[in-house]
Amino acid sequence: MPPVVDRPLFFLDYDGTLAPIVDDPSAAVPHPDIPDLLRRLEAQHPLWIVTGRDIEALSQFLDRPYRAIGLHGAQEGTVGGEARQLLPEEAVRALRRLRTSVPALEGLQVEEKNQTFAVHYRAVDDEEAAREQLADWLADLPDALDAVWGKKVVELRPAGLTKGTAVERIAGEHPDATPVYLGDDTTDEDAFESLQALDRAAVTVKVGEGTTSASHRLAGPDAVADYLRRYL
Ligand SMILES: [Mg+2]
User: Fold this and answer.
1) What is each CA distance from 137 to 88, 113, 133, in whole angstroms?
2) pLDDT at position 231
3) Which of 56, 161, 164, 230 satisfies CB 3.0 to 4.6 Å to 190 for a cystine?
4) Is there a single domain that holds both residue 18 and residue 60?
5) According to the model, what pLDDT value does residue 115 have?
6) Residues 109 and 79 in one domain
């Protein structure tokens, strides 16, 4: 069993950690003890839910406005409330510049997405030419942005944001607390590594099997509930 620390700062991954993995993600209800445990833990300690999903998706499973990290670290907000993508200043500046310089081409459609945008070219006359023009327009993209090409669309997204960058930032806001991170995903490894690199104690817990850089391990959501109960 991982140690129980005095002033925990909880980071709890949702799928596979607080809720058993199921085939249908929309049926991933939390372990039966979890809703009550979370409510009581949150009354005493800072607590963040972590997920690869859009935070909004968690509101079907959790009935309180827990703070949350979504999209594997690229989003921050509250369950059932506001959520915003995290954009470094460099990305914000580049998005502003790109938004005002979208190629003036008949048929191009800009889709606004919460702080970022996508450009669709399915309605242009010459798709090949449009694609080339868009590629030129995006030629000197800063590291803070990714251009993701889809079906007749290119979308701009923040790059380099992970569960690791998220927990590092939040841990910095709680200098006297000990981060306690429980997760089962490969993307949780970024968080384990970031927390271990901090110049302070942290409890990192891999849930389930598989290689990990976490310092402790719990078998699954039952064991997670047993461990969390020790903080009450
Ligand atoms: Mg998970």
Assistant:
1) 21, 19, 6
2) 98
3) 164
4) yes
5) 78
6) no
Domain residues for 71? Answer: 8-86+161-229
Sign, Cα dihedral of 207, 170, 187, 30:
positive
Give CA–CA dist 172/167, Å, rounded.
Answer: 8
Yes or no: say if 14 and 31 are a contact pair by the CB < 8 Å rule: no
CA of 84 to the centre of ligand 1 (A): 21
Catalytic residues: 13
Calculated CA dihedral for residues 179, 183, 186, 189, nearest 10 degrees: 20
CA of 117 to the centre of ligand 1 (A): 28
Q: How far is the CA of 35 from the centre of ligand 1 (A)?
A: 17
Distance in Å, CA 28 to ligand 1 centroid: 11
- Any domain includes 65: yes
Residue 74 tokens read as: 């690229």
Q: What is the pLDDT of residue 86?
A: 85
Let me know whether 62 and 113 are in one domain.
Answer: no
Residue type, 41: L
Q: In this predicted structure, what is the pLDDT of residue 63?
A: 92
Q: What is the 11 CA–ligand 1 centroid distance (Å)?
A: 12
Question: How many domains does the chain contain in total?
Answer: 2
Predicted confidence at residue 70, as pLDDT, reads 93
Q: Enumerate residues 6+ apart whose C-beta is below 8 A from 154.
A: 118, 119, 121, 134, 138, 147, 148
Weakly modelled stretches of the chain, pLDDT under 70: none
Q: How, if at all, do strands 216-218 and 83-85 pair?
A: unpaired
Concatenated DSSP letters of 36-60: HHHHHHHHHS-EEEE-SS-GGGGGG
Q: Which residues lie at CB < 5 A from ion ligand 1?
A: 13, 15-16, 184-185
